[in-house]
Amino acid sequence: MSNSSHFDPPRGVFTLPTPCELTNPFWDVIKTSKHFNLQRTKASNINSIYRGVIGTIQNVFDTKQPPFRIVFRAEPTSTSLQIAVSQTEKGINDAWKWIEDSLFLGLTKLDDPGEKENYVVTKINSLVTRQDKGTDEVSEDESVRAASRAFRQTFDIAPTERLVNFYSCAYRSIIQGWMYISENYLCFYAFWLGHETKILIELKDIQDLLKERSKRGIVADSIKVITKGSQETYDTLMQLTSQSMQRLLKNAAIEPAPGKFLFDSNFEPNSDKEKSVPKCNSVMPRSPMVPPLKKGLEEQKRDKEFQMYFNLPTTEHLMEECSCEFSTLEMKEFLNGKLQLSEGYLTFVADNAKSCSFILPLYTVRRVERLNSKTHIFALSISNWHQMKLTLQINGSKIACDKFCNKLRDNLKEQVRHMKHLRSFLSTCISEALLVDPKKEISVGGLGLVFGFPGDSKKLRDKYKTKLWIEYLQTHGRNLTLIKNPYFYKLVRVGLPNKLRGEIWELCSGAMFLRFVNDGMYEKLQKDYAGKVSLSTEEIEKDLNRSLPEYTAYQTKEGINTLRRVLTAYSWKDPELGYCQAMNIVTSAILIYMSEEQAFWILSVLCDRMLPGYYSTSMYGAILDQLIFEHYVQNKMPVLYEHFQNVDVQLSVAYLPWFLSLYINSMPLLFAFRVLDCFFLEGPRVLFQIGLGKKALNTFKYDELLTITDDGQFIHVLKKYFGALDQPAHPNNKNDKTRETTKFNELMMVAFKEFSSITTESVTELRRTHQLKVVHNIESYTKRGQIRNLKDTSKFSKNDISIIYDKYYNAQFYGKQKSVRNDSRMDLNTFYRFLGSISGWAKLDDDNLTKENGSPRDNQGRRLVGYEFINKLFIHFDRSQSDGLTLQDVVLGLGEIVFGDLLSRMELFFNLHDSDKDGYLFKEEILQMSESFLFIFRNLPDDGHLGSVSNFIKNAFEYTESMGETDDVENLLTEKEEHNTRMSLPSFRMIILADGYLEEFFDSGFATTFQFIEPTEERSKGLGREIFNALMTDGMKLAGKFGKRLNNARPKSFGSPDRSSSSNSISNRYSMNSPAQSTTSSMNSNNMTEIESQKSLLKAQGNDSPISFGSEEEDGLMQEVDRLLSEFSIDETGHDNSSALSIDIQATGMTLGFLLSITKHNSGIRLFGNNSSVTACNTASLIDDNDEFERDLKNELRLAIDEYK
Amino acid sequence: MASRKKVLLKVIILGDSGVGKTSLMNQYVNKKFSNQYKATIGADFLTKEVMVDDRLVTMQIWDTAGQERFQSLGVAFYRGADCCVLVYDVNNSKSFETLDSWRDEFLIQASPRDPENFPFVVLGNKIDMEESKRVVSQKRAMTWCQSKGNIPYFETSAKEAINVENAFQTIAKNALQQEADPDFSYNEFPEAIKIDNDNSKYDACAC
Q: Which of A:325-344 have CB within 8 Å of B?
């Protein structure tokens, strides 16, 4: 089966050939051949003092280097290339063997050193790029490659995890080390004088990010520098956590998508969706070399801002940017501004954003000419579809201009194909018809054209407004080519005329561009899904008559059908969202002014961009905006806010519905449309402004709100106010003009004047920061709901179920990221991950599974036989045979094992391996079963299981042979081959019961391999426990060393006996398989040696060692320890996480001598993980220059030593 | 005791979308039925003054959104409720089956002192529809109510005003009992007295 004849290259060992020093004081040569050298770091077998020091220096200077490497050199004079590194001797030996096997022969045939080098480099390159496709191993940047490797090996993180950036930093202002930020994790690693500190936080667990100046400088007058580096970290982190949160939120919608077609679960929604919703991490490797991820993230962020600003489709990317001066024939002067180019659009925004801006789709450009300009090197004249001439004078160097123009030319060519749609598209724009003949009948548009527009058009001065708009559109372009100037904003503010309203909404929100690009999609959805039903369509049906019943159209079949078509089409377009109440109200209102297709696309802009998450299954967007709204109230109206807090009135009770229905339900309809006019032009901030304005109004006395004592009164007061919006604000004022001002006018004024500080940017930013808080709330709700919806909890306790739930979704969270499957059920690969998280024997390096032809391997790279057992379990768990597991499936499946008994478990095992379900196991199946046994037992420390398994095989065959004897002789002769290896369930039982080891396995052992441990301990891939145990051991030693004083200072630090005993309690025979446990034991042994080294370090202090403190300094040390402890205890009293505490102690004890060197430079980032908090101080400025740092370090060391003397 | 004071009773109506929560509330408070109600977004409320056991009480009846996803909004106004009305549509069995989860979620969100004895009332609405359409029998509903600690059960029609008055009388009565429960003595809620004080002002504008 396996191709053992060919020797596979070991995985994760080879690196892209990198120049290096062959002779380096840090390396010892172990093996050597003509061209290759196998080396080991000196640190691993020399004097323990040096080992500590060298380790420290290596850690400070560079990222940690694995202890073994292979170096290639074509001939003694040429450069050496590092081609492989490994943590273990075995790993490097495998690599060596492979080299001997595959390269030696080829090399001997070549003579020229250049050719030799070429040969090896090509070989290794192709090997690495093949093995490590899409990982940092093939990153362009050597330092990223090295750091990423160090990071992944240190933290046992999958090779596909990509590093974003890494920083030199100090943890808790004390331990100098490295901070790594990757797609999913934030890690810290330090190695100081033989002691390791590892911290790993999952980004999705971060609840809050605050930038603050480090308050805990050990040196009182430490210089605090906020470096650019730290700002960048902050930004990058924000973006990454944001993405994690988005994924988490998407994941929270775990029930089958409500809008999904009910009767065919495999129905693919439609392929266009993939296009319009690009994946978060879309950094696809085009060449074998990929740019560092950070670069990708920066671009992504820039694109996002660009898209948001101009309301462009998410397929647009910012390609070129330059400053320029813009004018048209009608404009009197040139305006300075920024010109930006994406695939399909050319955008301009003046330095004063409102004074002028345009978004020109390239497909509307008819002609571009280069002008001769006296003042500028480069000037362009662009004529568009509507016969307008735009003049652009580009500033900048000739090269930059040329680059811009070339790109523009390329993109224009690319977009020409869209031009042919233009004519038919423009026929759906009312502005075109209006400009030809204002009195002409218009055929395409909203329901209002047939059923009449709400309100008295005379009173609204509709004719006059229309006239003004026609004038504007004639000179400033229209629909796709419109140029916005301050007058445009004014015209929108006073209320749009009925006929044009829909089109201006569409234009302002950017929905028009979507509609143009996705021509025909709406109709296609109608056709594809005709007659199909989903949960969403059922919900829509209930609400059709409950949307805007007062409007005449919705009392007719025609109106209702229109509404139905738009809502259902949207539910098909976005089945994850489906349909949410309030969408019906918004849609029914906008349909008065817009055609179905227009409404459909504006709905899509609403759900995806303007109100993200409002209507999703968890409605997180609405919750988020409520938090932000409260934040604003607190800032702008503190008195009122405090009052509400005191009487416990929830603002959200009133404001949630209003935000959700965009005020349509809560104001007289006409005013709601005026709000919508502004909303589509200026974005979601309008909702906040109106909301705040309402409270701040003079007429609507603060006092009245201040007397409110419960939610009911609050709603009542606001409602009363809303109902009276059309009344004059100052009925008794003498001035006619003032008397005419309605309360609504006043509201608008206050909203936009007083709260002008609320900008789209600030709303976006707040949404991003508050997101972290909302996610964790929603999660707990979804979790409750999911658990409650379980029909059968299979005897598991509530706590167990809760843990299974967490693990299930945790696995899904990381699994989903890579798969594009739009399925809420767990697939096989995710199941590996899930099972590995609860059961030690099931832990596989899952990333190897996803690679081509990959069968799982253990960490030494051996192929794992018998892992198919997990596939068998998967199929067994999958009761509905849908190739996916729901939470219910998993609970029942696990329950069967955990709460079964000896017999039921044996039967389960038997059935699992009886692949043809004929009630007998045949030779192949028996062998598979024994492989399964070996697989499950593979991590056991003792060899007891080997004997039992071989006995099992022997007995199985023996027994069946004896069975053969009783058979008909003839039968035996003819069918011996098959029959003599046939085993039935009863005989299987007998064989098992005959072996004590296997009997115990089925009696209790197998069930106890499943550990339902709180995810907090397991969170860091077993590292939490690992760190904790290591620290416990070390902490105890330290406590012994420093004696009572330490204990007195922090008696709690070494407490928490529960934790340690719980980790011991599961150390029965089988749970030795658990990964946390086994790594712990290895960790502990590591620590033992490290502690030895510390001891010798302490012993050496009296001697002439370079960094001796002298024994008499111990008292000084002790004082410092006391001081530090008291300092930390202030901060830590609230935390019950003892691992966090232990880290402090550790830090204090170990690195005292180096304190001064580090804490001079700090600027901090503070992170709150769920259970741990990390203060990382960036000292990037420090290490900019390694030499300088070395000098500094030496100086500080000397100072420190002097001081203690 | 607060026996002579006017009392504010907070009643929450829960149930699936479209079972008739808004209609029931309006039928009871305004004695009107309309088929022009809009879907309830978030929450809304009406108040009504009633005499219960010779005492004048103000009922604050909260109507809620029925779509499941709205539950994740964290329904803050559940807190301090005196009675919870669970409504289902007798012609829709799913709306009956979800009563369990409505009840559980209410108990979690409102976290009353004594969840075992918190007053619920179940209403099977839309009995005016033809008998052939009915899918949840009276017996089935009663069995469920009994299993949850003898919840009072009514079959109603908001459209025809059948049993609505009756049901809400029981609701008010049970809510009042909850309110008067020694466990909920006013002494523990100093702010509760404020509610009463302010009520007079508030009622004046409510009429």
A: none
At B77, list the tokens: 């106004």
In three state form, how does the secondary structure of A727-760 look? CECCCCCCCHHHHHCEHHHHHHHHHHHHCCCCCH
Tell me the CA distances in angstroms from A507 to A305, A482, A566, A889, B143, one per residue in order. 19, 9, 19, 48, 58
ipTM for the complex shown: 0.85
Residues of chain A in contact with residue B105, where contact means CB-CB under 8 angstroms, are: 784-785, 788
Give yes or no for A581 touching B (CB within 8 A). yes
Provide the domain count of chain B. Answer: 1
Cα A1090–Cα A1093–Cα A1094 angle in degrees, nearest 5 = 90
Q: How far is A1163 from chain B (nearest CA, A)?
A: 38
Does residue A777 lie within any of the structural domains?
no
Report pLDDT for A853: 41
- Chain B residues within an 8 Å CB radius of A656: 41-42, 73
pLDDT tops 50 at residue A797 = yes
For residue A767, list its beta bridge partners.
Answer: none
Cβ contact, residue pair A546, B37, below 8 Å: yes
Say if residues A1175 and A171 touch (Cβ distance below 8 Å): yes
- Strand-strand pairing, B120-125 and B83-89: parallel
**Residue of chain A whose Cα is closest to the Cα of B37:** A546
Q: What are the backbone dihedrals phi and psi of residue A17, each rounded to the nearest 5 degrees, phi first?
A: -55, 125
Query: Which tokens belong to B83?
Result: 């009675």
In a domain, A904, yes or no: yes
Residue B168 domain boundaries: 7-183
Contact of A660 with A582, CB cutoff 8 Å: yes
d(CA B189, CA B207): 27
On whether residue B157 sits in a domain, the answer given is yes
Which structural domain range is residue A1006 located in?
900-1010
What digits encode the pLDDT tens for the residues A312-357?
988 888 888 888 889 888 777 888 999 999 999 999 999 888 889 9
Residue A617 sits at the chain B interface (C-beta within 8 Å): yes
Does this model's pTM top 0.90? My answer is no
Contact A203, A241 (CB under 8 A): yes
* Tokens of residue A1167, six digits: 């992170």
Q: What chain B residue is nearest to A658 in terms of C-alpha separation? A: B41
Query: A629: which chain B residues are within 8 Å (Cβ-Cβ)?
Result: none
CA angle in degrees (0–180, nearest 5) for A648-A653-A659: 140
Picking from A543, A707, A715, the nearest residue to B45 by CB comes out as A715
Interchain contact, B69 vs A656, CB within 8 Å = no
- Name residues 101-130 of chain B within 8 A of A (Cβ): 101, 104-105, 108
Give the pLDDT band of residue A278 (cuts 50, 70, 90): very low
pLDDT digits (tens, 9 = 90+) for B116-148: 889 999 999 999 998 899 999 999 999 999 999
Task: Report the residue of B60, B69, B97 to disrupt the A interface, i.e. the one with the largest count of A CBs within 10 Å.
Answer: B69
The sign of the torsion formed by the CA atoms of A683, A685, A688, A693 equals negative
Residue B38 and residue A585: Cβ atoms within 8 Å? yes
Question: Does residue A25 have a pLDDT over 90?
Answer: no
Domain final residue, candidates A772, A801, A827: A772
The span from the CA of A654 to the CA of B45, in Å, is 11
Residue at A548 is within a domain:
no
What is the tens place of the pLDDT at every residue in A587-627?
999 999 999 999 999 999 999 889 988 998 888 888 889 88
Tokens encoding B118? 């918190």
| Residue range A418-442, pLDDT digits in tens | 888 888 898 888 888 888 877 777 7
Q: Does some domain include residue B80?
A: yes
Residue of B70, B76, B205 with shortest CB distance to A619:
B70
Instruction: Note the pLDDT tens digit of each residue in B1-36.
Output: 444 566 889 999 999 999 999 999 999 999 999 888
